[in-house]
Amino acid sequence: MFEIWTVRVLGAGGFGVLGWRMGRVVSEFSTGQERLLWPWGLLLAGLPLGALVAPYLTLKPLHRIIDYTNSIPGSTLVAGILGLLVGLIVASLIAIPLYTLGGWFGWGLPFIVTLTLGMTGLWLGVQRGRDMRAIFPALESKRTQETPQFGRNGSILVDTSAIIDGRIADLTSTGFVEGTLVVPRFVLDELRHIADSSDPLRRNRGRRGLEVLGKLRGDDKVSLEVLDVGVDAGDEVDSQLVKLARSMKSSILTTDYNLNRVAELQGVQVLNVNELANALKSVVLPGEEMRVNIVQEGKEAGQGVAYLDDGTMVVVEGGRRYINAYHDVVITRVLQTAAGRIIFAQSRNG
Description:
Blueprint: H1 2-27, H2 34-57, H3 59-71, H4 74-95, H5 103-127, H6 129-135, H7 137-146, E1 155-158, H8 160-165, H9 167-173, E2 180-184, H10 185-195, H11 200-217, E3 223-227, H12 237-248, E4 251-254, H13 257-265, E5 270-272, H14 273-279, E6 289-297, E7 304-307, E8 313-317, E9 325-337, E10 340-347
Parallel strand pairs: 1-2, 1-4, 2-3, 4-5, 8-10
Antiparallel strand pairs: 6-7, 6-9, 7-8, 9-10
Helix pairs in contact: 1-2, 4-5, 4-6, 6-7, 10-11
């Protein structure tokens, strides 16, 4: 709060001085009483305007820069700085003879060379951040200890199934996902092929996935990156995703049961959205009573089926006669399966 008020006061003062100076300039083209009104009028207008916009011009961008810098791995940051320094050193050596040209070339060419080589060195350094991580592993290990995240290195590879599922957007909006979501290019390609499918169902699923990615891109609570990696010849998308996760030491976010098993067998951490949903479902115990809305018949004779708010199926023995009505039941047993949880109950009235 103190820093906001400080910035507002400084902004009001700065805009007030700027308004006064602009008023003096404008008054040169005025005559009579207007010549005195312009400086004071713009001064009084600049004071509240500066106090209003100063935090958005200073604190907001500064906080975004700090958050972005904190999200960069230490190895990548060090590699980028070293690349920038090397680029500037090479640029200075090349620019020395250019200063003797005189005129525009004497200052324009050295500036262009310095800017180009400096940015090139920075880009090359960032691209080789993984090599720096291998040389100085303490940079990454210290960061991981200070900032616990889902993935082993803070990044989470996202599978096509998790994107199409859509619940990932709801999960990230809560702020629970602290790592960087990484979408490989071959996952985007697969998603695009699904969206272009002639099958209406597959096409709708693909378009939904693209909409989810757009929502994630606009969410300030999550960091989303696209990794330019293709599929090796002869590999499938799932096998390439597991291979990439092993090389990056990252986890995989998916809803695919088969991919989940294959990745775990190869030592890759898996974040399964379905398992998370099952873990968060309400806990019920045999003997508890509840009131449910029986909506359809069960597989066995006389059974009725109801659903809890979280989607858990409740099979009511003898509940067929209560279809389309609320009824009090007693839990008899709870069955946990790979597909989810099923609750068995009977009418409280017997």
